[in-house]
Amino acid sequence: MVIGAVREGLLGVDDPEERFTNLYDRHYRSVLGYALLRTEHGMAEDVSSETFLIAWRRLDELPDPALPWLLGVARNLLAKQWDSRHRRQRLVDRIAALSTSQDHLILDIAEHVVDRETALAALATLPEQDVEAMALATWHGLPPDQAATVMGCSARTYNVRLHRARKRLDRALGAEARVARPHPRPARARLTEEA
Q: Boundaries of each RNA polymerase sigma-70 region domain copy (predicted)?
């Protein structure tokens, strides 16, 4: 715990303003990025600012490491702003917006396992909690204990949610692929129709 606080630059600094400045400089971009995945730019900035206002007020109570706590505060603030229906759609829209046609030109086509539209359609079918669990692990790179803090559950519960979310995504991707490329009818069925 102390090692993390040293790494965070918070331990050993007596001046609260300096401690807060270190916290802000270290984590503002992560909090803003988290909020940008869920809402438009102006709202994301407001949520990020309010997150750090709360952190300033509770500076002496911040856990170590601070990032999961900050993301949890941002998550709660976002929950107050939107009902789950709007938040899920906005998250899918933000992920779609982050992948541009320029990205497709830069990346080798062979590296794309599933095309972008199929992946977005599959993500849109998932509950918000599933998408968030996967985003915390893959997009933000948080280990299970920190991601669990953000989602307000235990690490074990988070791991179960992440596992189930990945299974549901796998099923959704399979369903989307079947819709996109229907299987040809068997030859025997074609022969009986022609006769």
A: 23-87
